[in-house]
Write a structure and sequence with these properties.
The complex is a heterodimer of chains A (308) and B (361).
Chain A lengths: L2 E12 L2 E12 L3 E5 L6 H8 L7 E6 L4 H11 E4 L11 H11 L4 H10 L15 H13 L5 E5 L7 H15 L4 E6 L2 H7 L2 E6 L2 E7 H8 L3 E6 L15 E7 L4 E6 L2 H14 L5 E7 L2 H9 L6
Parallel strand pairs in A: 3-7, 3-8, 5-6, 6-7
Antiparallel strand pairs in A: 1-2, 1-4, 8-9, 10-12, 10-13, 11-12
Chain B lengths: L3 H15 L1 H21 L8 E6 L7 H9 L5 E5 L8 E9 L1 H9 L5 E6 L2 E5 L5 H18 L2 E5 L1 H6 L3 H31 L2 H6 L5 H31 L7 H22 L6 H18 L14 H6 L1 H14 L4 H24 L5
Parallel strand pairs in B: 1-3, 1-4, 5-6
Antiparallel strand pairs in B: 2-3, 4-5
């Protein structure tokens, strides 16, 4: 796959805060990429620089060998985007809004009608945007992002704040659009969203990329695939856990009284853990065993949750 | 055909149609205001008085010398009647001007009464329907009887017919106020609101043509202001018998240039503000001083003379003064060309700087 977006050593600072710190990545054509990270990680700043909405203090961004300084008009036509937060003109209907945006791209009325249907808003076609629910507004925003059949789709937290049903509806609309072989770049807090829609995951933290790759590769690279999680009483660190064989990492959260053991084979390790706890007269509560997910990976890398 | 400019323009009018309150504030409210003020100020008394005295430089006049003996160095008569139960006083400032200038002053609302000496008598011109002028007449009458002992003849028709009434002064002012508010709130505030909603950046990223976006705002506001002016003129004609005594082309030129000036100011005001408090504050900071100083409701002539040059430099003053010239003094384009150029200059300069610093994203 050849790179469609090349980001080379970009930095963006706001007064004393470095939102994006000397970052270099390529996004490949036809690839679906999710950028994950907690609030303030620099995800939105990064995508807004790719969208040409913000300019980096240093570094270069090239999209299909074009840049925002010289090729804004051409780039606007091939990119479809949805911002983190957009409100619409209150007293304008869904169809009129779609028609307005279609006209910006020089598209006919039929395209606006088609996108109203594709966005699942046909029954709300004549509703004023002020009367739409959060999910319906996001659908409209997505419809507008896709109206020009873009080569590159950039979505900034497209489902934040939506209920699971509305979130899934948006995912399926995006899956449909993917059949047109567009390149998708999205930011999200939700690992399920990233896992459902994207092959490649980029994890950002404090303006830097701390992990980049396919989900399985990332988990493999970390050296553990499974997780044993339990609660405990007391404030004393259970030293025996650090002496157990085949435990890749131990995470102790005294605030929540929780311990996480990162392992490769639960069925092999769990009896050893239980025997050792019994011998040390350590009481294990609320035991859970499961496969590791991206949140666990993020937690093991930074000590913080993605949703913080 | 799905034209983006037509769509942008259409959206402004759909918003008007679906927001009846906008129609009320832009159209019905100014008419109601002109009705209330126009009627009530033909009944209410006022304290300050100004009068014009027509002088003929070739002749020395008995009346003039009597008047000059009773006024101070500021040409102001400070009169106090004889002490008693009905004792009263008043201040009246006189402008000594020629006949043509005197009638211009009364039409501008700068004086409320004109005295014209002839032989050993005087003619007094004032609008009997204007209570301020009527009060000035009664005040002068007692002064003349006591101090000057001169016979007089009242001529009121000439004034009432040609628009020296308060409503003649007020109506062009209200049109100007409408132009200013329409631009500042309709364009400046609209930019700020679209920016707050992050819709502006979304539209520009779409990609919307910025020139079409700006033009749609300007044209929709000019159309709305024209409708508002037309309704006010029709109301003034049918209710107060107000006619446009000057050139229609001059009126259109002043109207367009006024819209240009305030649209430019609106672009500057709405160029960067990103929250409603700053936006509101900026618009009020621009509009309230002009509303107070520019003589929309009352002439600025009573304000200290030292600030008159500043007042006259305000775009709302230029607009209101030139519109009144066209409405009340029969002005043609040559009489208002300077104001038109001045207003256009303000419009272009403010929009130039506004667009230079405009925050689209």
């Amino acid at each position: 796959m050849k790179p469609i977006i090349k980001i080379n050593e970009i930095t963006k600072k706001f007064k004393n805060l470095t939102a994006v710190d000397n970052l270099t990545i390529n996004i490949n054509e036809g690839e679906n990429t999710a950028i994950l990270g907690p609030n303030g990680a620099g995800k939105t700043t990064l995508v807004e620089m790719i969208e040409g909405i913000q300019s980096p203090n240093s570094g270069e961004i090239s999209i299909l060998n074009m840049n925002w300084k010289n090729n804004e008009k051409e780039l606007r036509k091939i990119i479809g985007l949805s911002l983190q937060e957009t409100r619409f003109i209150d007293k304008i209907t869904v169809y009129e809004t779609m028609l307005l945006f279609a006209s910006f791209y020089g598209l006919k009325k039929e395209k606006a009608e088609e996108m109203v249907i594709l966005s699942g808003l046909n029954d709300k076609k004549d509703s004023l945007t002020m009367n739409l629910s959060g999910g319906q507004k996001q659908k409209l925003s997505l419809g507008i992002a896709l109206i020009n059949d873009p080569k590159i789709i950039i979505l900034d937290e497209p489902t934040t704040g939506l209920d699971p049903h509305a979130r899934r509806e948006i995912w399926y609309t995006l899956k449909e659009q993917k059949k047109k072989n567009a390149t998708l770049l999205l930011t999200t807090h939700y690992m399920e969203e990233a896992e459902f829609l994207c092959q490649r995951i980029i994890i950002m933290y404090q303006g830097k990329i701390i992990a980049d790759g396919k989900i399985n590769d990332l988990l493999k690279y970390h050296g553990a695939r499974e997780l044993i999680e339990f609660s405990f009483y007391g404030k004393k660190e259970p030293q025996f856990l650090f002496d157990l064989p085949d435990v890749k990492d131990v995470n102790i959260d005294f605030e929540e009284s929780k311990i996480r053991l990162y392992v490769n084979n639960i069925s092999k390790i769990l009896p050893i853990v239980l025997t050792a706890a019994n011998k040390a007269k350590f009481k294990i509560l609320d035991l859970q065993c499961r496969k590791m997910n991206l949140d666990d990976l993020f937690l093991s890398l930074t000590g913080k949750s993605l949703n913080e | 055909m799905n034209n983006s400019f037509i769509n942008l323009l259409k959206i402004h009018f759909l918003e008007y149609k679906r927001e009846p309150a906008v129609l009320f504030w832009t159209i019905i409210f100014p008419v109601a205001l002109s009705l209330v003020l126009g009627v009530s100020f033909s009944k209410k008394d006022q304290v300050f008085q100004r009068a014009a005295i027509i002088i003929d430089l070739d002749k020395d006049n008995f009346f003039l010398s009597k008047i000059k003996n009773n006024i101070n160095e500021n040409n102001t008569l400070i009169y106090q009647s004889a002490k008693g139960q009905n004792s009263y006083g008043f201040h009246m400032k006189f402008d000594f001007v020629n006949r043509e200038e005197a009638f211009k002053l009364i039409k501008k609302g700068l004086v409320s009464i004109i005295l014209e000496p002839y032989n050993n008598n005087i003619r007094i011109f004032f609008d009997k329907n204007n209570s301020q002028a009527e009060l000035a007449f009664f005040q002068l009458k007692s002064f003349l009887a006591e101090k000057v002992n001169v016979s007089y003849e009242i001529v009121s028709e000439e004034i009432t017919v040609k628009g020296g009434r308060y409503i003649d002064f007020l109506l062009p002012g209200l049109i100007c106020l409408g132009i200013m508010n329409s631009a500042l709130w309709g364009i400046g505030w609209s930019f700020i609101e679209l920016r707050i909603k992050k819709l502006l950046r979304r539209m520009v990223a779409a990609p919307m043509k910025k020139s079409e976006f700006l033009a749609s705002h300007f044209i929709s506001r000019v159309i709305m202001a024209a409708v508002e002016m037309l309704i006010l003129c029709l109301f003034g004609y049918f209710y107060f018998n107000i006619t446009i005594s000057g050139s229609l082309y001059a009126l259109i030129a002043v109207f367009i240039c006024g819209n240009l000036a305030f649209s430019g100011i609106a672009v500057l005001v709405g160029s960067r503000a990103q929250n409603s408090r700053i936006g509101n504050g900026l618009i009020n900071a621009v509009s309230i001083p002009m509303l107070i100083l520019s003589g929309i409701f009352f002439s600025y002539i009573n304000l200290p003379e030292a600030i008159h040059p500043v007042i006259k430099a305000l775009p709302l003053t230029q607009l209101a003064d030139s519109l009144r010239l066209v409405f009340n003094e029969g002005a043609n384009f040559l009489d208002v060309w300077f104001s038109c150029v001045y207003l256009s200059f303000i419009g272009f300069m403010t929009s130039y700087f506004g667009l230079k610093i405009f925050k689209w994203y």
